Amino acid sequence: MVKWLLLFATAASLSAADPKADVLSAMESWKQAVLKKDATALDRLLHPDLTYSHSDARTESKADILKALSNTQSIKIGESSVRVYGKTALVKGPMEFVIVTNGKPATISLNVLQVWLKGPKGWQLVARQSTRVNPAP
Fold it and tell me: Domain residue spans in the chain?
């Protein structure tokens, strides 16, 4: 029993020390904050110097994002690659957003690159660039 508890505690501490898992957890927190329109949570997750570029070439700041909480109905994050370089992480992968415009839902498929920085407040999104995925013919 003691060996089992020691093994479990060791595995849990290794998992907690995994920066890739931490970044993915921050991404999940970002997703939930967007869906719940939780400005307080987003404020913690977005870096003050955020550059948030959309697939239509619009670029927004942290203040812009917090001011106009999105009309996002759902977000699906596909399998992403996570590369961590010290206190910087690059996350690249597909995302599917369902947004509501004029009362009608629309699905947008994107390839997204996110840059996360780890600081005193944990992992924060500092940059995002997205490209629209063309539907297959």
Answer: 18-132
